[in-house]
Inverse folding.
């Protein structure tokens, strides 16, 4: 009962309440919503701590077992602990050591990793973007028109290219995306209903 | 010919890396100066920010990007803040991506210093808050439900600018700048239920995902990638608010050339592919 019935009942009651409160603007109902929102914020914060501890555990196990790439785990562990301690000790305002670590280590590292994408995209496009069949050819033509129409050189070549690019984005793209969004929305509603009704119990640790 | 096709098919990928590297760097050394034509989506965002002039209402910027996407989204933030500060529109900044909080502070401080703006009067940075759906819902009632203090731990009540801001009704125009889906969550949890003026600023690769929101009116426009940022800079220049273009316009020549090189590689790859298919067919016959 403590492991199944009570948690599922709480999920049912709170889930139903949160869905219905959208249609009940009464101040008593809204004050309960405010309180629940406060609780949720606390749960999110607790999840951050849990995530950090989980990462630390994962890294320490990797180091202990000397699994492949354990050296990186050591660097990650040291970086995580050092940044946290420095952040608490010096503060996080500009000019502090924490901010220098952010500006001169984390920011260039992240920017470099992201910018490498351009190189890999070019290489992958050369090797894999083939007009193998009608659908692939259509995708290829659309991609080329968008790529060239979305940069100034498209305008420089012809005024028509950006117009075609805009048309593709405004109509076929929007129509397809809208369909996907509706599908995702319906999927989310069905998952929420499954949780509220106790059919989906993954959050209880069920497989 | 056969040899050439074989060579193309087996081309070492380091050549593609070199070509992209050169095409990315070269335009910075020798600018091409291609003309920038602002799109209607960026023009719409510009018009909404321009309309804030004299209203006293703030431009709210959600800085939801980190250093990885700063090259694309950062120039948007700078251009938007330039626009607001030049029109004496207050700026309210916040952030839901913790790897971007410090970056947001850097951008806000730089822009404010450039225009001689005073903290607490002309701009405020609320900093990072977790549980973004709750924050967005809370802001429909009272921003203080989520933010008691700003990024520097100063109570919100002590900041003169914040005395006039309670909830979404007091926001002039909100813009979510991001390299993640956070820009969309603003629509799901904010604009959808509470209906306020909002626009998206995101990386180029994400922009196509959000076009449906322009048609529904939930996003008043889109600033997409470096091109969108450069278009915004061009609009500021055209309006006589600035005298030069910014960082985004500088990078646009490089982006144009890179796109051309990628297209060139796609075409070459397909020529080699079809050549090989033709040879295989002939061999079978």
């Amino acid at each position: 009962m403590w492991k199944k019935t009570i948690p599922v009942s709480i999920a049912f009651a709170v889930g139903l309440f949160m869905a219905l409160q959208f249609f009940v603007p009464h101040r008593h109902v809204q004050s309960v919503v405010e309180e629940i929102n406060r609780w949720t914020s606390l749960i999110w914060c607790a999840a951050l701590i849990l995530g950090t501890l989980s990462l630390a555990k994962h890294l320490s196990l990797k180091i202990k077992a000397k699994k492949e790439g354990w050296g990186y785990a050591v660097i990650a562990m040291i970086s995580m602990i050092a940044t946290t301690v420095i952040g608490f000790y010096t503060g996080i305002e500009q000019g502090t050591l924490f901010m220098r670590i952010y500006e001169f280590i984390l920011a260039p590292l992240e920017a470099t990793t992201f910018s490498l994408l351009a190189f890999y995209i070019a290489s992958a496009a050369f090797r894999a973007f083939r007009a193998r069949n009608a659908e692939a050819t259509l995708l290829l033509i659309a991609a080329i028109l968008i790529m060239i129409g979305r940069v100034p050189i498209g305008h420089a070549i012809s005024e028509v290219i950006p117009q075609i690019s805009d048309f593709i984005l405004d109509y076929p793209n929007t129509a397809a995306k809208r369909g996907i969004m509706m599908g995702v929305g319906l999927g989310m509603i069905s998952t929420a209903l499954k949780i509220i009704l106790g059919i989906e119990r993954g959050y209880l640790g069920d497989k | 010919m056969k040899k050439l096709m074989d060579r193309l098919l087996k081309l070492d990928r380091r050549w593609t890396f070199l070509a992209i590297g050169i095409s990315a760097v070269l335009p910075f050394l020798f600018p091409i100066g291609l003309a920038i034509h602002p799109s209607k989506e960026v023009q719409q965002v510009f018009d909404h920010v321009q309309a804030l002039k004299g209203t006293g209402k703030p431009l709210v910027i959600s800085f939801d990007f980190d250093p990885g996407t700063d090259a694309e989204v950062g120039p948007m933030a700078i251009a938007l803040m330039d626009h607001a500060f030049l029109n004496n529109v207050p700026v309210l900044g916040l952030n839901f991506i913790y790897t971007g909080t410090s970056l947001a502070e850097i951008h806000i401080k730089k822009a404010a210093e450039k225009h001689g703006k005073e903290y607490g009067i002309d701009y405020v940075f609320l900093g990072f808050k977790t549980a973004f759906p709750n924050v967005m819902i809370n802001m429909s009632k009272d921003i203080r439900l989520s933010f008691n203090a700003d990024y520097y731990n100063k109570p919100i009540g002590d900041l003169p600018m914040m005395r006039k801001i309670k909830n979404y009704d007091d926001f002039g125009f909100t813009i979510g700048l991001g390299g993640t889906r956070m820009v969309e969550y603003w629509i799901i949890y904010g604009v959808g239920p509470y209906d306020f003026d909002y626009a998206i600023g995101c990386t180029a690769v994400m922009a196509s995902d959000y076009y449906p929101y322009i048609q529904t009116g939930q996003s008043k426009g889109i600033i997409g990638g470096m091109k969108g940022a450069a278009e915004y800079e061009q609009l500021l220049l055209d309006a006589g608010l600035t005298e030069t273009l910014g960082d985004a316009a500088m990078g646009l020549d490089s982006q144009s050339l890179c796109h051309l090189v990628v297209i060139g590689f796609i075409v070459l790859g397909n020529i080699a592919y079809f050549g090989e298919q033709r040879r295989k067919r002939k061999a079978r016959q």
In short: The CA atoms of residues 55 and 202 of chain A lie 21 Å apart. Chain A has seven helices and no strands.
